[in-house]
Design goal:
It is a single chain. This protein has helices spanning 20-30, 35-46, 70-74, 110-118, 123-126; strands at 54-58, 83-91, 94-103, 133-140, 153-160, 166-174. With 182 residues, it is of the alpha+beta class. It has one domain: Chorismate lyase, CATH 3.40.1410. Strands 1-2-3-6-5-4 form a 6-stranded antiparallel beta sheet. Strand 2 (83-91) and strand 3 form a beta hairpin. The longest helix has 12 residues, at 35-46. The protein is globular and about 45 Å long. It starts with 19 loop residues before the first helix and ends in an 8-residue tail after the last strand.
């Protein structure tokens, strides 16, 4: 399978000077297939909220333009429907990330699609039973044009099903709240 990642890379990938808290945060993200679970564990370990529960808060009216090469990356035809979800992932009242998620509804169950459309359950938790893996495509620290001002880190990743099919492409913009600097 060919992965069209050339058009999905980030500009501004230069890393800032060493920041131990940010390095620890990045290591936590890298250790998990699901950003949702990584954020839950981070929220708990850092005492950001008690209980450390991650929920998705929909962002309306600010949809991102689909990324160039999106359909090829996900391995879908021009006519196959794609889903899109733009959310803030929140722990307590702290916004830990803003995420754009393009996904293939046909590769989810009807119940999963309902939950994504109607609930505040994050994608990673909804789709966890599919045992997806995370393939990092690009990351950057600070200043990525795809993210709101003040984002400390940006990640683009392809979530894959065990058979290798693309499930979702995510663009995640992580906030200062993760470092206690909001």
């Amino acid at each position: 399978m060919t992965l069209a990642v050339g058009s999905l890379t980030l500009s501004g990938c230069a890393h800032t000077a060493a920041d131990p808290a940010l390095d620890a945060f990045e290591a936590n993200l890298a250790a998990h297939a699901s950003a949702t679970e990584a954020l839950r564990q981070w929220c708990e370990a850092r005492g950001i909220a008690d209980p450390a529960q991650i929920r998705a808060r929909f962002v309306r009216g600010a949809d991102a333009v689909p990324l160039e090469g999106l359909r090829a990356t996900l391995g879908v035809t021009l006519t196959e429907p794609l889903g899109y979800r733009h959310v803030q992932l929140v722990c307590g009242e702290k916004v830990l990330s803003q995420a754009h998620n393009w996904f293939v509804p046909a590769r989810l169950t009807a119940e999963m699609n309902r939950q994504l459309a109607e609930t505040d359950v994050p994608f990673g938790r909804v789709a966890a039973s599919l045992n997806f893996t995370r393939q990092p495509l690009a990351s950057a620290r600070r200043g990525d044009p795809a993210c709101p001002a003040g984002a400390i880190s940006t990640h683009r990743a392809l979530l894959r099903l065990p058979d290798g099919q693309g499930l979702a492409l995510v663009v995640e913009c992580y906030t200062e709240a993760n470092l206690g600097r909001d």
